Structures
1.
Amino acid sequence: MPRRDPQEVAERQALAQSPDRVELAVALARAEIKRARGLSDPRYLGRAQATLGRWWKLAEPPPDVLLLRATIEQSLHDFKSARTDLDQLIAVRPDDAQAHLTRAVVATVTADYTAARTSCAALEHLAAPLIVEACRAPLDAIEGDPDVAYRRLAAAVSDPSADPGLRAWAQGTLAELAIQRGDEAGAATMLRGILSADPDDAYARAALADVLMHQHEPAAASALLKGFDQIDNLLVRRAIAEHAVHGPDATRLVQVMHDRIAAAAERHDRIHMREEAMFTLAVDHDIPHALELARANWDVQKELADARLLATAATAAGDVAAAAPVTSWAEAHHVHDARLTAAFGGAL
Amino acid sequence: MKTAILIVVALTSPAWAHKPSDAHLALHGEGAVLDGRLDIAVRDLDGALQIDNGDGTITWGELQAAAPRIAAYVTDRIALAGDGSACPITLGAAQLVDLSDGAYWALPVHATCARRPTTLAVTYNLLFDLDAQHRGLVHLDGQTLIARDGTPITATLGAATSTLSFVKEGIWHIWMGLDHILFLLCLVLPAVFQRRTARWQAADSLRDVVTEVFETVTAFTLAHSITLVISAVGLVTLPSRFVETAIALSVVAAALNNLLRTIDARWAVAFALGLLHGFGFSSVLIDLGLPSKELIGALLGFNVGVELGQAAIVLVALPVLFLIRRTLAYQALLWAGSASVVLVAAFWSYQRCFI
């Protein structure tokens, strides 16, 4: 449990005394969102939402509230509401770089690449060049040529004048592009570099574990993930890896995952369908159910990882037609992705 | 609240991947009483009530000191109502339990409704002002209801109540009600002593005795079944004070008949008085919460239960009475027993009518 920050306690008391002070609520909610991300703990998202409770249901809340509301909605996979809020925010505050960047992310997840490009373009006058490149590169890679996109982003990342924090973030995106090109070894090297600089980068750790699993090295993946069980995305991957190698923690981790899935179902949460489908496919070997989950997940989010998952599940089920939404998406946008092609058995 | 009991202390044990905030309220009903447990994450309680001194570790002492505040918080924010009337809640001594995502404060919950509820409204309003993604999962009779805010959620109970459970209720109603047992014994007591050519003497054959008892019990069953049905479906309803008093008077009448021997045909007595008892059974059945969907099954089940309960008493009493029918002990039982039943039942009648 995190220590209580005395300043935050004081701010909470001040807000309780004057509940209309939106700037206090925004600062507190921002701290909760930061905590939710830092600890990978969804509980603090709910606390952020409650902190904004007075403004949460308003049609036109103050712009700062709109941004945080969209951020929370995005985290809860309510992409439609997030998009509406971001569009509304940009209409009143067109120079909000964070709003454009978040809008680009939300639009990309929902496969609205035109809107995503508009947002990345808007960033040109508002943000560092590396941010603009990292915003655009995944779009170029999906809709165009992953090699070209990779080279452009690689050049931007190697610019020594860029902010080191930004470079680490952009390197993660670059590693994704390497995977898309089929250069798993190159991606692994990059991800290891990110992790040696910041071992707490859960995103890079998950991506590296995926590379290792893809290279049929579950033991190495499990070792990489050991000690990070408190992070959802890493727990599910370690459960799968341990199960694959019949490791000493396999039974316990599989049980924990089953408990988590049951608990999420009990409260009707549908935000972990991607992870649940991965687990159901790899550990439970319940292919029909995994396919069902992967399809339902694709209805909500359409990132490359989601496309690969549905393709893998459909191929495992011997029912490639079940992945029709992915094939038509890939055709419509001329998607080139090495793992997706492999998932379809080279048939894409 | 009593001092909490420590079961497992593992507040600092490494938690698994984080879950969103859930609390569980599990309740099961037994007649008008609801029993169960409320499990709330300790860290949620800390968020709401500032249990920790701020160092990031909640100690047992801190929890114990906060126990009364926790109990007050819960009773302020959870309410149960059965068929529209409140079922007051009392909380038991808390335990600390270690669930997969951390420590939970487990509070035994006990609620008493006016009668067995057919619908239960649960108002659950914990933590929503702290965590908008908090969910109260209410487990009730095999259903799980989800509280997303403080709006009352309603569950229909008893839909799953089986005919079998009504059989059980019928048996218990007979065995727990001294008035029914005494009435039955008064009817059975003289059966082993039969009138022959204007004289009373011990019955010779067990078959005659069984036949007569069978007739008596059947007459009673028929009669109370008739009034049970017409009263349970609402065709005729009588005030319960009147019914209860009349049942007590019927016991007086049955016992008096043993002493005075005015009516020889005991089946007629059994039938007449059985009509009264049926009204009594139906009020029990209504208190149990009669399911409208399975009315027939409930009535049938309850009636079968009543018969089984009676049959068990007769099967125990009759052989004993038959064996001792020629002894002084039997005469003593018949006269003194019947006389004391008259007195006891007369007192009940007075009590039920005037007190």
2.
Amino acid sequence: MPDLEDTLARCLAHMEQGSPVEECLARYPQQRGELEPLLRTAARLRAAPQVVPSPAFKQAARIRLANVSQANASSRKLEQPVTKWPLFRFLEQIRPNFITRRRLPMTAKGLLPVAALVVLLLIVSLAAGGGVVYASGDSLPGDVLYPVKMATQQIRLLISTGELGDAKLHLAFAEERLEEAVALSQTGRWNVVEEVMAHYTAEMDAASVTLERGANGELGNLLQASTAQHLEALDAIYEMVPDESRLRTEQAVAASWRGSARAGFPPPFPPTPEDLDGDGVPNKEDVCPYVPGFLWAHGCPAPPDQELSECQEDTDEDGLPDCVDQCPNEAGPPWNFGCPLPSDCPKDTDDDSVPDCVDQCPNEAGSPWHLGCPVSSECQGDTDEDGLPDCVDQCPNEDGPQENLGCPGPPARQQDTDGDGVLDLMDQCPNEAGPQENLGCPGPPEWQKDTDGDGLPDYMRQCPDGAGPEEYPGCLGPQAWQQDTDGDGVLDLMDLCLNESGPQENLGCPGPLEWQKDTDGDGLPDLMQQCPDGAGPEEYPGCLWLQEWQKDTDDDGLPDFVDQCPNEAGPQEKFGCPKLPEWIQGTDGG
Amino acid sequence: MYPLAQVITSSPDEVELTRRASKGDVDAFSELYTLYFDQIYRFVYYRVGRVAEAEDLTEQAFLKAWQAIGRYEDRGSSFPAWLYRIARNAIIDSHRTRKDAIPLEDLPPLAADEDLAPEEVLAKQEEVKRLQTAIAQLSEEQQQVIILRFIEGVSHAEVAAIIGKSEGASRVVQHRALAALHDILSEER
């Protein structure tokens, strides 16, 4: 009868080729009893459903590894020795670019050293376990891991190459902010939703501003596809947030729209009788009902100064700011998105300012916003003859200017109850006077607070009450953990040899630490190796092969030097043999 | 002298990729990553039984591999065998600190199959969970052999190289592991 070991191996080999268990059992009937449970267990294991990593994790892991490996690879090109702390070198490497080249979405003074700080925090987090970074992926503002998530994003931005790469990342981060805002809206943390919406606006503007530096079809398509989805989500958020928290969401909508406009696409809302200029602001709430504008600018194209500083430029002086002008260097009417009309098309039969070549109703005077066709009949009457048709006139029987929606005085949305110069629409404290920079409140909102007034909000600071150099964010001088007693470039926090200078890879010590040494580079420190100079299977740590006294060829638990059958497994009571050796049987017998 | 276990032979492409990666070529390492990520993840999952921990350790293993690949050359074993060993070390390190129980609801992600009803997917996930829980009760070496041989489909020669034993010894471990696993799974019924 063949050895069970051999039979099992043969049967498993046949099963790998597709033979059923029964076939093998039939071939070895005498061993069926022992074979069957083994083969059925093997078959069950082989039939196990295939476990695969989730695509999201796989992608995220690849990005994280790419970030580290690219930084690491660059450092190798500089012929630096490979160390166990690539992120330290990585930090050094990126810092110069970081300070001179990159423009972060939030450009508050002092933000850069804070970002450097969070990178450091990230490194500390990684030292505590790479899972922290992954775990931070789903964190929300206020969660312990949220700073890690934000720091990770900054790192990705820092090491991305080219403006297109940056823009795509900004767009991705904007989507993350949007997801966070949706999640936060379920919790009713409206002040945090506002903060996240402000970040979304910054990310979207950072993404879309790239288009102004050179049109890019890929990014344009991405932006267009994204903004369509963003607007749906923003609309849902807008419906959930209370009135007093809607301003930031409106700004976010405007940013999304700006992105779409910069990509060269028309406004997302088609003109209708209720929204003549198709800007998404209903006529009755639109201060400029005939000109597309921003939700947060009361439907006008030019936003208030304090709202968007980068939207003040109007290079071609056609009345449309560059940020919404699709032809910022060529003057054109606003209803043609700021682009010039065809030069070979002077004729305008119906004299409605829309040349015949683009006028869909060339013989009938109409609105340019309706491609030269007249607006619907119900919107043609103007009882008080103030120039605003009744359908958009908030006071159709009283003469009033357009900026008051046809009323003698400003409409409710334009009122300023506390007289602080901030319209109620924008005023987070409509009954308490406060400056514009505090959004109309006596003091800054919590997330804006900047106790020492250096432009860095308290929530991003180490020492909110202090004022100091930017390298010690918000502190008068270095904190204990920021000090570098021996001046070796490794902060005391990380330096295991505080008074001796040493490189980062040695944790600030002159030479590698004993427990770090890994002579044969197999990832197992010498400390844990039996033969630190060798390289071999880890079963025999760091040794090329078994020490003589460790050998147990048949793996039966008895070392060869005491095993009477070193090539056949057997229990100790049979001296390592399948059956008692003959010389012992002989002794027993006689 | 103890016979050295048979060394896994890598394909010429893989050898070239590994050579380039060891010189710091990120793209080459990226290709190796694509080739072996799922395998290593599966191996780690069956060892630890938690999705989040498996993800964490798989990521750590590849990060460590990248950091050490400059010293990989002339090590006498194939790249996947080397990867499996790094993953195994990461698992052992992780287990030194882990004390909490594995939650039952932590079901593994499976390859997508649109033809399956949700309850069928759940049944498959539970089968994986049962097998993983049973495998986890084996000795460390037996776990390695079972997962590599029957879940990953690695040949005996390769398994022997990874665990650092002869093929004969690896077969003995396999035999005992299958017997022990059968007993564990039978007790569950």
